[in-house]
Amino acid sequence: MFENIPEVKDGEVRPLLECQEIQLGYSTPSGWKPVVNRVDFEVRKGETVALVGESGSGKSTIAKALVKLIPLRGGSIRFDGKEVGNLSPVEFQPYRKKIQMIFQDPLKALNPRLKVSQLIEEPLRLHFPKLDRAKRVDELLQAVQLPVSSKDRFPSEFSGGQRQRILIARALAVEPELLVCDEPVSALDVTIQARLLELLESLKSSHGLTLLFISHDLAVVQQIADRVLVLQNGRRVEWKETGQLFKNPEHPYTRMLIDACPTW
Ligand SMILES: Nc1ncnc2c1ncn2[C@@H]1O[C@H](COP(=O)(O)OP(=O)(O)OP(=O)(O)O)[C@@H](O)[C@H]1O
């Protein structure tokens, strides 16, 4: 099955994530609602791939499937060469740590009753029980360029951009390989957005990360992505290296997205 995944040749960077003909959707009271239809893409190690498309095109649905928040209905998801799409939640456990997600609204993901130190220690306790957690919390706060004193405060005491950094520190705690970022900067103003994008860029090299970056903002995508997958109504309409996409958008939908972007 899915033998059309190309062999990796010598010197080529191996894909960390390979999605082949994935089909996703939701069970609703009125029946099965298909959302993502036979979509193919891959993310090479160290690369940033952006998923773009209008609201409702299926971007977050793909992200949810990658961390098994919803099941794969058809097709194949391979992580580091291994088929993970049809694993049970228990079988998927070893991979769950390697794929971390950050969301647009960190407040929803951070328990407001816990201090930052507790929020970051939580995944450490689970995955690295023998580690000196206090030391690691300090290191992770420094990695996301927050003062170490932040650890004694609560999420509500921070700005949106700072909360996003806390969420990133928490995600980094388990040493992921793939960071799935679902509209992580959409709620932030432009200056804060730019700083957070710079941070993600520097964490990529310092922590050996690969990024799948979901956004509807093409200005952001142009800044951060190596390749872009354009989704329309759950179908792939374009899949290209970023420079090429902006220079030579082939699909009318891509051209429409680019024309609709206020930066151009
Ligand atoms: N739990 C659910 N049950 C039923 N339908 C859902 C559910 N979650 C999402 N959908 C539908 O799936 C489609 C794709 O939604 P999705 O959130 O993946 O889009 P998106 O491209 O990420 O959009 P946005 O940019 O607005 O987040 C939409 O029609 C949405 O209404």
In short:
By secondary structure, the chain is of the alpha/beta class. The protein is 36% helix and 26% strand.
Number of folding domains?
2
Side by side, the strands of the main sheet go 6-7-8-3-9-10
The assigned structural class equals: alpha/beta
Report mean pLDDT, rounded to a whole number: 91
Shape designation: globular
In the CATH hierarchy, what is the superfamily of the largest domain? P-loop containing nucleotide triphosphate hydrolases
Rg from C-alpha positions? 19 Å
CATH fold-level topology of the largest domain: Rossmann fold
Give the number of DSSP strands.
10
Number of helices: 10
Q: Give the biggest beta sheet.
A: 6 strands, mixed
Give the CATH class of the largest domain: Alpha Beta
Beta strand %: 25-35%
Output the helix-strand order.
Answer: EEEHEEHEHHHHEHEHEEHH
Distance between the termini: 43 Å
| Ligand catalogue | adenosine-5'-triphosphate
Q: Poorly predicted ranges (pLDDT <50, ≥5 residues)?
A: 1-7
Fraction of helical residues: 25-40%
CATH architecture of the largest domain: 3-Layer(aba) Sandwich
Give me some keywords for this one.
264 residues; six-stranded mixed sheet; Oligopep_ABC_C; ATP-binding; Rossmann fold; binds adenosine-5'-triphosphate; 36% helix; transport; disordered N terminus; alpha/beta; 10 helices; globular
